[in-house]
Every structure is written in C-alpha cells, then in structure tokens.
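Listing 4. Sequential folding, example run.
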Amino acid sequence: MKKRRCSNPKLKLSLPSTDSIEKFLTKTGTFKDGDLLVNKDGLRIVPQDEQHEPRLINPSDNQLTLADIDTIKVIGKGSGGIVQLVRHKWTGQFFALKVIQMNILDSVRKQIAQELKINQSSQCPYVVVCYQSFYDNGVISIVLEYMDGGSLADFLKKVKSIPEPYLAAISKQVLKGLIYLHHGKHIIHRDLKPSNLLINHRGEVKITDFGVSAVLTSTSGQRDTFVGTYNYMSPERISGKTYGYKSDIWSLGILLLECATGCFPYSPPNKKDGWINFYELLETIVEQPPPSAPSDQFSPEFGSFISACAQKDPNDRKSAQELLKYPFVSKYEDVDLPSYFTSAGPPLATF
C-alpha cells in the first residue's frame, strides 16, 4: 500500500436534509426506516402491505415500557449516546439501556435502524439479548440484557492478560456466536473487539453492538463498504477490497492475541514515540507479516489457532465452524470462567 500524504481518504460527511429527516420521523412521532417502525410504545416490523397506513403498537401488548424502569447510573459513553444501568420497578431486574440522540447524520441513522432490526431478530445465547426498543422525543432507547461483568476490555484492564485455559473457554463462546451471525443470520459484525464482547458473573461471553453490522442479502456474504474499528480491521478491508465473514475471524485472532499478551499485537517502530500517525499503523497491518503467538510463551495449539485466524489472505483463514474444532478450543476442560470473571472484582450492579 502506497504511502499517503495530504490525499488521505476521509469519510464524506454531510448534515441530513429536511426531506431525509421526514423520511425517518413521521408526524406520529415514529422513527421509521423501511419496514421498521419504533415509537414510545415499542418496536415492530411492518409488512410491506401495511406501509402506507401503519398501525402503531398498542402499549397494552408490551410487558416492558420506559415508565417501568428506574435509572441507576451511566455505565458507558460513546459517540452516539450513553448506556445506563436501569432497574425494573416491579421485578428488580437489571437491564442496560442504550440511549441514542437522533440529531445525527443520515449514515448513522441507517446504522441504528440496522442494529434495531438485528436486535429484534437475534435469538442466540452468545449474542446480547435485546428486550425492546423505543423512540420518543428525538431519542432512541434500546433495552438490552445487562452483563454485570462489563466488557472484555474492562476485564483486561484489571487482569492485564488472560491465561490460555480461560481464553479457550472465551473463544468457544465467541465462535458459537459468530457461527450464528455468519451462517444463521448472514451478518458480518465488522466491529469485533474486546469492548464489544460482554461478560457476566455466570461466565457467559456474548457479542454486542451491531451499530456497524450489515445483513447480507447475497449468498456470497461479502461487502465492499469501509466501516468499523481500524485497529482490529482486516488487511483486505483497510485496502478497500471486498470482504466477507472472514474479516471477523481476523479481528478475533487479533483481539485474542491482545488478551493473551496484554498488549496490542502491532507495536510501533519506535515504542517510545508511538505511531507517527494513524496511516502508519494501517500500512503496517497491510504490508507487514501478520502477528503470531510467541512460541516460547504459548502452547503450539494456541499458536496454531491464532495463525488460522490472522492470515493476510482471507482465503487462508479458517471459518468459525472450522475453528471451533481446533485442538486449542477443546484442550482445556472444566474451566471455571464464573470464578475467574468474579475474582477480578465485584459486578457493576453491586452498590
């Protein structure tokens, strides 16, 4: 990849027009995109023959409403909004409430609509559950399963690195989640990283945050768009080439290697000064050999697993189904993830 100077490619951003806003927000106070309708009473997917005269959700049909939950505290912040810890008034059950202000760009609106559709249709024990979504007064609120251990990124900050047996148990769950997304839902996550893997005191690991995911209508399972977190992005995506499900496999290998070693696999040439600029890191990922697990620190099984993920050519990478059969995943039996996760500190819901 040639070095770029002032001609670095940048995303072209523009403010939404009045017409585009009306396309999403109807006069009835509804967030609308295609067949998806969300209002203050909840979410529904409207059949095509009902598009012209949509029937809004009856509040009495929903078991969960925003009026039924109390806000405890903010547990996460991002560019699009915040995540709150909330509690159901009548049952005491905790939820995570993702709150998104809708004064945002058209491209982000589309991503949110996509996330709502994925959340609505996903039913997998390795994907974070979405209970309901609401739109009211310019705000989208998504009620999600609360994972009381936070993210794998949070956990990694506490323990610095994660031993192989626990990584094997984590990998098994993430791979099962990816099998569901890739082959069950035809979805490329496109933003797989430690902060998008959530854990809880039961030892469960679940994939979350589909804000940049895409449902694939083609059987080839490939996209040519450029969205996601760059550090974990596959070489073919950085190069602007067509990419498929295997791009998530590259990200999995990079994040697992980071968890194993306690540091991001790509080190800057001058560790004291760090990366000169963002594009230097991208060039390194594209042009240099892929990272690997040091053989003097890790087992051959782990090294083989990482190498099967972190191949420059996506055709040389294994699929999630193939990786689930790798010796590393089954090498360690009876791993106590619940105790390991809780040993790092109390859950976020402890006051």
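-- end of first protein; second protein begins --
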Amino acid sequence: MNRNSWSSRLTYILAVAGATVGFGATWRFPYLVGQNGGGAYVLTFCMAMVAIGIPMILVENAIGRRLKVNAVDAFGGSANGKRVSSYWKIVGWMGLVGAFGIMAYYMVIGGWVLNYIAQISFGMLDLSNTLDFKTTTTFYEQNIVSNPLAISFATLVFVLINYIILVQGAVKGIERSAKYLMPLLFLLMLTMVFKNITLEGASEGIKFYLTPDFSKINMKLFIDVLGQVFFALSLGFGVMITLSSFVKKDENLVKISIITGILNTAIAVLAGFMIFPSLFTFGIEPNSGPSLVFKSLPIVFSNMWAGEFFAVAFFTLLMIAALTTSLPIYEVIITTIQEKFKIRRKRAIFMVLGGIFVLGNLPSLMATNLLSDVTIFGKNIFDAYDAISATIFFILTSLGCVIFVGWVLKDEAKKEILQGSQRYAKLIGIWYFYIKYIIPFLILVVFVSSFYDNFLR
C-alpha cells in the first residue's frame, strides 16, 4: 500500500486533536467533573495529562511512525538486531477489538445527537416552554431510549456521513474534514462558552468548576481521572499508531505529542465552561452522570434566551466532535483490513462500517427494548460494549504498548523519536525510564480498579 503523508504538521495536529476531542472532552469529561466534585477533578486531570497522557502519546507515536504500517503490523519488524516475535501483534489486534467495541455504541450516541438536532430544528421538542426534569426525561425516554427506529435511521445517516469522508482516502479524507470541522468546532465552543459565562448566575458554576475541594480527592477520583486520560486521548484504540504512521520521518514527535496533550486538555477544560455556569444559573444538579447532556441541558436551553438556537449550536458541536473522532477510529480498522487482506479501500470501508452497524450499532440500539433482557456481565449490550472496551481492551493495549517500547524496541524507539527531535535527547532518556518502569505500574492500578468496579463489585 502506497502511504501518503500529512501535508503539514498543522493538519496532522488538527486531525489528532479531532480524534482526541470527541465525546471524551465534550460529553464524558463534564459529567465526570460533576460526579467528582468539580475543581478537584479538573486539577487532577490536568496533572495526569502531563504526567501520563503526553508520555503515552509519544509511546504510540513512536510505534506508529517506526514502520509506517497498520496498527497490527506496527508490532512487527526487527528491533536491536533481532526479529520481533509475531506474538506482539496480539497487542494490535486487542486495540482493533476495542475500537470495534467503542464504535458499536459511539455511533449510536452520534445518532442521539442527530435526532436531538432534528427534533429541535423541526419543533418536535419545543424549548419555548419551561421544561422540568419529568418532561425532559419523558422526551429522552420516548425519543432516545424507546424509539429505536428513529435512532436507527439517525445512526445510519451518521455512518453514511463517515463513509462519504472516508472514501476520499486515509489522509485526504480525514485531513480535509479536520481543516474545516475543527475550526467550526472551536467557533461553536467559544460561542457557547461566551453565552454561558455571561449568564446571571454563572459565577457559582465557575466556582464549582475551578475551585478544588481537596477533600474530594480520593482513589475513585484518581481512577476516574486516569481512565478519562486514556479515553480522551484515544490511547489503546490504535488511533495514534495509525495516524502517526502517516507522519514524515523528519517531524518532531516530541513537540507534536506535547501540543496534542496541551490542546486536548485545553479543549476538555473549555468544554466545562459550556455547561456548569448554566447548570448553576438554573438550579440544576451537576452530578446527573452520563445523561447530563441529554437530560439536563435541554432544561437549561428551555430557560435561556434564544434557547433553540443555542441548543442546535451545542448539539451540532457534539456532532462535529463525534465525527472527528469516529473517522480515525474507523480508519484504524479499515487500514488494517486493507493492508492485511490486500483489498480495495472502498470494499474495506463498506465491510467495516457495515459490519459494525449490523453487529454493534443495531444491538446497542435494541439494548433498552427488544434486547433488554440480554445482559453481559450484568450489563445491557450498550453498557457492556463500553465497559469491556474501555476497562479491558484499551487499558491492556496501552500496557502492551509501553512494555513493547520499553522492553522490546528499547534503543530503536529512542532512535525513532530522535529523528527530528535531536535537541530533546536528555528528555527522551528520562521519558524512556519513566515509561519502562513507572507507567506500567500506573496502568495496572487503573486496570485492576476499573475491572473490579465494572465486573466484580
């Protein structure tokens, strides 16, 4: 397969930023902040992004650019004069299974967002009247949980949008979409932030969001933060490995990794300003969990001047974030199938998107109705896809990556990073020690704690 390269560092950073922003920053991060007491979580997250996120980005970038192949074959080749055991490719396959798991429900949430946009735009959800929790919950249940046909159609539309972009090429499609979608996402985000911080009661929400209550820092918060760092940066998905396989050999991987980590952190923190000032302004509890965006925010918009406009703007922002993330996750699987089985790109795209829709999206859609009696580890199908992917495959894939770089590639990894990053030689030495001995221990802590919470408790 003839591999193109990103046209510039900026387009690659925009593509990576799009891949790592997604629902991780705009949906998952805010509700975890609300559940964990506000400012303490935000502070811990920022520290964890520097201590763990950025070093892990560099790990996956080194693996991806080294051989410039798919996320499975990236664990092959030779290192330090020896042939790498083919068993290491299991790490790549685990990432692909995890990517399938997340897309199985991720696209359904994209369908939820499209449905909300349509419902509000065509007046089916009337935000001109003040809504209460009961009314909003009923809308949520009737139009999201109990209406699989409408959500199936919306999810299919979202999948088709991904298909149209992906057929343009691995680099061309994602790069072109990132050039236009990321600036639009930033513009919508800034619009929502400005609207929220100028509300009459915004100060209380900002205080909750930024003032750390150190009594809230406990093991659960720490584990939630570490899990969010991996989720937010798409670590263990194979995304960074795949995207960096298109990076030129003379690019500065250290600088790219640092910029990626800072940008992701900034966007995640900015996302909180879209939500918490308005929640406190209208007296809504911030700890409603994963349904925060879909249940609580319609109440906010119903009480807000030009609520329909800002509601559509907000959910459009979510749709863009979902799209910029789904494209590279799909690409992980598409590129692997295309290279491993030597088939044409369009056929690979159709197989991947169609297979995930039938085997993943449809079961997730029916998890609350036709298949509500089907449980996996005590969870419905939708929640099981999330828990198994995030708790098992992503974390174990990340663990495999750091062990592969620290104990198998060794000097080969450092040489790869030094191409274009020579002035960071001392820093890379410290990084290598850190990812070889310290980060594996932290990942194991996350894995054991998350596995216990999700499957044993």
